[in-house]
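Can't paste images in this forum, so I'm doing it all in text. The chain is below; anyone willing to post the predicted structure tokens underneath?
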Amino acid sequence: MHHGIAYVGIDLASDPKLTGIACLRDEGGKVVVEDVQVGADDDTIVSAVMTSRKTGVDVPFGWPRTFVELLEAHRTATLAPPPSTDPDWKRQVLYRATDLEVRRRVGKNPLSVASDKIAYPAIRWAGIAARLREQGVPVSPDGHGVACEVYPGAALIAWQLEGHKYKGKKGAASRAGLVKQLSARLPWLDWAGHRGACVDDDNALDAVIAAVVARDVDRGLATPPPAELADLAAEEGWIWLPEELQ
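Text version of the structure:
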């Protein structure tokens, strides 16, 4: 029988074989990395989310309101011509409020879910979220349900652990250094033999980071949507950035 609080992190890829998933269990004095794996189908993800207190998912939870409105207006031939189709106009159409807020806060540019390949896993998440809602699990774009949108790369900057090029095979040495730094900064985290998996594969490491951020969100240590962006976040999604490492 498991004791403690379960937090899940998911580095969602469009391909289940490349999807990282991690489960942490908060036992009060320490947080144990119970499991980390790369390779998670929809059933595995749904089951993990349903058994967690909070799940952090590295994927956009929605699309920009301006983009959705443009598509509908274009479909119905009611689109008012913009003064210009310059880069500023396109930026307003293609980026969410939360994307611009992450850029303002930590200087990192999230990929545009409206114009980049990140749309592939985002569409997968839309299908998974529909399954969760069908089973009575509260999920919402703004992250106030059981799952929240996270961004490991931006979380590292918020934790002042930026500068690591840890992606892909060439990033193994950097991942090893990053795991070492995380271990020092998170003395309460018991990797329980899973450090090697995170050094071997950035998808595994991002899943652990996503789970740590989910725990921060649950404990009130991450930034929620401000009142003036609450309506947009409810449609577009909201990237929960952690505050200081605790």
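The longest strand covers residues 31-38. The chain has one domain: 5-60+117-236.
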